[in-house]
């Protein structure tokens, strides 16, 4: 068996370049008008209106297909692309320029053959040479692209093609004539989707059994310049400081091209199409055509933010493939460049001296100091910081920056006194938050004087001290002197008189002499009054001057009341119940309380009033300083009894209070106490006899 090499173009006419990829060695120089190689294009219909375009403008293709240099060229790049178009067809050919030591490797890469592929590993009857297909071919389809040959002419033998693009997704792109071995493509290919297809060819007999193969068939898609450069990383915003040196890099613009990166189809060059605005120079910036770096090209003097029409520039950037040739595709994007401010202008007061007037005793903002600054209002190079550097020893003034207007708000924080000083002079400086650049300094305009005039106000009299305190015993006689108050008028230059009056006297116990301020009592002072809190009675008094209108001052008087034993003790409880058959004759525990304070309260003395009758019925026993216990000496009949009990406090002199304890003796059955029959009082024998005697006397007048 003999291996035969064959291509589809040897057997029939295929419209387009009859060979699509060429390799030439890089000469020392391409000589003007000397043919480099010959390209064969055939549209199978006479090549009417045939025209060639070369990617490198230093070359052209003659009508007969000869590629010649238009001038002596020492560097033509790595590849040339020739586009041919006639009335009936168009195609693209690629000419790769390699060094002598690269040629073999480049051919090996294109055809994907191993070093020993020329000598088959085993004897095969199938020859499947690599197929190159340009992407984006135009109809009609299917289009023959190559041919597979078998040297064995077995009767009934058929070719069978398989792999990705045939019977695997994407299916149906390629097919083979099972008799002739012609390989055809059914639709246009997209190299950016799939660049290479690895198929298998085998020969089968009439029953479908493989009799030879499979043999690999490689199909490579030749790139065409069908993708425009795209800027994918926007928005593109760059910043550059004003006054930056010429050649300062601002930002980098990078575009993407989906075409083959090893060809000029994806070789990008950058250019600035438009600059807005065009002042102070229409060419403020330059872009590196290969890297995409945007740099400044004007002098630092022109890059002055304060003299620019606007600190924002917009550049329309174009990226063009094919190395920037006219035949290249383009894509555009907008780069926004902001000129950043630096602190090259100090703030300056709009005038050297400011005036302010303030009433004494008033606080708050009295004047706004205005400044001008040519720097960017959005930065610390514009924001002002104010400092009082002289005239504020008492720290009566403060100054703060208004964040909206940048003005200095001068305030009085401690009330001023006209009588002490009617005029104040402040020296104020202004600086920026950010430091000035080294060659700029603050000048005389960055300081200003503020003249402040204090207006006199009729101030109310002031009590000394305030509050006023005094200690008195309760129950002192009405008309007693409590205190003489003292109030003075701060308006010492006005020589005004002061009169006094009562402002608040909750219990109505006090009066004040309107002329000399003597406070006296008009009622008994009672420490136990609800108007007294924690032994202190509080009243307010007014001091009123003779100004027009008059001014008023308020003074507070605290009277601490000392206790006097003027309250008798009280007894609790005053009602007790006991069963008539009770075994425990301890009837009730009594307690005593006193509104007075120690030592006018406990210990208390508990006593029973004298008991009448032949025998004693109860007794009282002291438990502690404040409590005692009443005990029955025997069981009593069901009735009500009144037991007079006297309680005496420890005051000097002591006070005694006698209280009757009502004792109910009730019948108790089954844990229920019945006191209903005890409503009538059981009175001592003495009281009964007195009653009978009274009735007897009334009967016999």
From TrEMBL:
Provide the primary localization: membrane
> GO terms for CC?
adherens junction; catenin complex; cell surface; cytoplasm; side of membrane
The task this protein performs is described as:
Cadherins are calcium-dependent cell adhesion proteins. They preferentially interact with themselves in a homophilic manner in connecting cells; cadherins may thus contribute to the sorting of heterogeneous cell types. May act as a negative regulator of neural cell growth.
Q: How does it assemble?
A: By contrast to classical cadherins, homodimerization in trans is not mediated by cadherin EC1 domain strand-swapping, but instead through a homophilic adhesive interface which joins two elongated EC1-EC2 domains through a region near their Ca2+-binding sites to form a tetrahedral, X-like shape.
Where found? Cell membrane; Cytoplasm
UniProt cross-references to InterPro entries, sorted A to Z: Cadherin (IPR039808), Cadherin-like_dom (IPR002126), Cadherin-like_sf (IPR015919), Cadherin_CS (IPR020894), Cadherin_pro_dom (IPR014868)
GO terms for molecular function, please? beta-catenin binding; cadherin binding; calcium ion binding
How is the protein disposed in the membrane? Lipid-anchor; GPI-anchor
Q: What is this protein called?
A: Cadherin-13
């Amino acid at each position: 068996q003999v291996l035969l090499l064959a291509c589809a173009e040897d057997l029939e006419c295929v419209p387009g370049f009859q060979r699509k990829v060429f390799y030439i060695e890089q000469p020392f120089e391409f000589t003007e008008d000397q043919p480099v190689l010959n390209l064969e294009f055939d549209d199978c219909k006479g090549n009417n209106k045939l025209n060639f375009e070369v990617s490198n403008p230093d070359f052209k293709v003659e009508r007969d297909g000869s590629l010649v240099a238009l001038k002596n060229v020492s560097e033509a790049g790595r590849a040339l692309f020739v586009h041919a178009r006639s009335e009936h067809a168009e195609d693209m050919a690629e000419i790769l320029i390699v060094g002598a030591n690269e040629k073999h490797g480049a051919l090996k890469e294109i055809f994907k053959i191993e070093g020993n592929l020329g000598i088959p590993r085993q004897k095969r009857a199938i020859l499947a040479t690599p197929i190159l297909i340009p992407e984006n071919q135009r109809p009609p389809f299917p289009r023959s692209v190559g041919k597979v040959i078998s040297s064995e002419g077995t009767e009934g033998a058929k070719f069978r093609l398989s792999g990705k693009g045939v019977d695997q997704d994407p299916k149906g792109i390629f097919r083979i004539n099972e008799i002739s071995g012609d390989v055809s493509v059914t639709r246009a290919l997209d190299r950016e989707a799939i660049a290479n297809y690895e198929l298998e060819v085998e020969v089968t007999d009439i029953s479908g059994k493989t009799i030879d193969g499979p043999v690999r068939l490689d199909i490579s898609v030749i790139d065409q310049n069908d993708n425009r450069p795209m800027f994918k990383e926007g928005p593109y915003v760059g910043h550059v400081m004003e006054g930056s040196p010429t050649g300062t890099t601002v930002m980098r613009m990078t575009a993407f091209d989906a075409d083959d990166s090893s060809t000029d189809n994806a070789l990008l060059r950058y250019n600035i199409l438009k600059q807005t605005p065009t002042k102070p120079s229409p060419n403020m910036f330059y872009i590196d055509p290969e890297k995409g770096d945007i740099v400044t090209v004007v002098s630092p003097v022109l890059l002055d933010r304060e003299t620019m029409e606007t600190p924002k520039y917009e550049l329309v950037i174009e990226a063009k493939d094919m190395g920037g040739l006219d035949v290249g595709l383009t894509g555009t994007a907008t780069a926004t460049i902001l000129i950043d401010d630096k602190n090259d202008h100090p703030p300056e007061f709009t005038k050297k001296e400011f005036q302010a007037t303030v009433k004494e005793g008033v606080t708050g903002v009295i004047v706004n100091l205005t400044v001008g600054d040519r720097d960017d209002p959005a930065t610390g190079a514009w924001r002002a910081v104010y400092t009082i550097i002289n005239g504020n020893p008492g720290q009566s003034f403060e100054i703060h920056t208004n964040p909206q207007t940048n003005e200095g708000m001068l305030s009085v924080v401690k009330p001023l006194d006209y009588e002490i000083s009617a005029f104040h002079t402040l020296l104020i400086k202004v600086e920026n938050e950010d430091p000035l650049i080294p060659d700029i300094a603050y000048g005389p305009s960055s300081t200003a004087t503020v003249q402040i005039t204090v207006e006199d106000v009729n101030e109310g009299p002031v009590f000394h001290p305030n509050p006023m305190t005094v200690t008195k015993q309760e129950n002192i006689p009405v008309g007693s002197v409590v205190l003489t108050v003292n109030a003075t008028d701060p308006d010492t230059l006005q020589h005004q008189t002061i009169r006094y009056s009562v402002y608040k006297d909750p219990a109505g116990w006090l009066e004040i002499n309107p002329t000399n301020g003597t406070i006296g009592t008009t009622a008994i002072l009672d420490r136990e009054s609800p108007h007294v809190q924690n032994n202190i009675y509080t009243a307010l008094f007014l001091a009123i001057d003779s100004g027009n209108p008059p001014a008023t001052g308020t003074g507070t008087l605290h009277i601490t009341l000392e206790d006097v034993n003027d309250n008798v003790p009280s007894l609790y409880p005053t009602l007790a119940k006991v069963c008539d058959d009770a075994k425990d004759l301890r009837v009730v525990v009594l307690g005593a309380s006193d509104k007075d304070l120690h030592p006018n309260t406990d210990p208390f003395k508990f006593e029973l009033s004298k008991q009448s009758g032949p025998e004693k019925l109860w007794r009282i026993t002291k438990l502690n300083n404040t409590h005692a216990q009443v005990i029955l000496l025997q069981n009593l009949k069901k009735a009500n009894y009144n037991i007079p009990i006297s309680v005496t406090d420890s005051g000097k002199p002591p006070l005694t209070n006698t209280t009757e304890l009502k004792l109910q003796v009730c019948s108790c059955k089954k844990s229920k106490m019945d006191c209903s029959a005890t409503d009538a009082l059981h009175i001592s024998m003495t009281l009964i006899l007195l009653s009978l005697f009274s009735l007897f006397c009334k009967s016999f007048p």
